[in-house]
Amino acid sequence: MNLKTTSLLLLRASLGWLMVLWGWDKISNVEHAVRVSEGFYGGLVTGASIWQAAGYTQVVLGLVVVAGIFRRFAYPVLLAVTGVTLLAVWKSIIDPFGFFTDGGNLIFFPSSTIFFAGLALVAFRAEDVLCLDARFEPATVVPRVETTVP
After folding, report:
1. Rounded CA gap, 22 and 76, in Å?
2. Which region, left, alpha or beta, applies to residue 98 given φ > 0 means left and ψ of -120 to 50 means alpha?
3. Would you say residue 122 has pLDDT above 60?
């Protein structure tokens, strides 16, 4: 193991576990999910059963990401989930102290870090070898560039 593979393992495990925690919150505290929907997503979804189903789906996604299986599909879904969250708190990303926008809050600024960590998982999926599906992935061939010194 080297630093890169260990870092990707830890990044994958932490992002996956975050999905598990977010999902569990939706399952166990549906009222909280509804309040979040009303506050950040314009009340788009307020049905308790829908939020519980979303929570179970998110828990499964998180466990899949932690285990490192179906990464070709799980990582883009993870990126979409964190991207929706990022868009929902955009004011906190642009103006975390609320100097220029109403609704900025420093506590939501890490949403950008979470999104970009997911992007790193997508970008370095081929190098994330400490996972369960690594043996089933085709080997990535990196072309060798020959350089000559004049």
Report:
1. 17
2. left
3. yes
Q: Could you give the angle at which helices 71-88 and 110-123 cross, rounded to 10 degrees?
A: 160
d(CA 67, CA 130): 9
d(CA 86, CA 9): 23
Taking CA 33 as the corner, what is the angle to CA 30 and CA 37, rounded to the nearest 5 degrees? 140
Residue partners of 72: CB distance under 8 A and separation at least 6: 125, 137
Count the neighbouring beta carbons within 10 Å of the beta carbon of residue 74: 25
* pLDDT value, residue 127: 94
Per-residue 3-state assignment (H helix, E strand, C coil) for 90-107: HHHHHCCCCCCCCCCCHH
Can you give the three-state secondary structure of 53-91, one letter per residue?
Answer: HHHHHHHHHHHHHHHCCCHHHHHHHHHHHHHHHHHHCHH
**With 90 as the cut, is the pLDDT of residue 148 above it?**
no
Query: What is the value of pTM for the model shown?
Result: 0.82
Could you report the per-residue pLDDT of 79-94, keeping only the tens digit for each? 999 999 999 899 999 9
What value does the mean pLDDT take over residues 104-123? 94
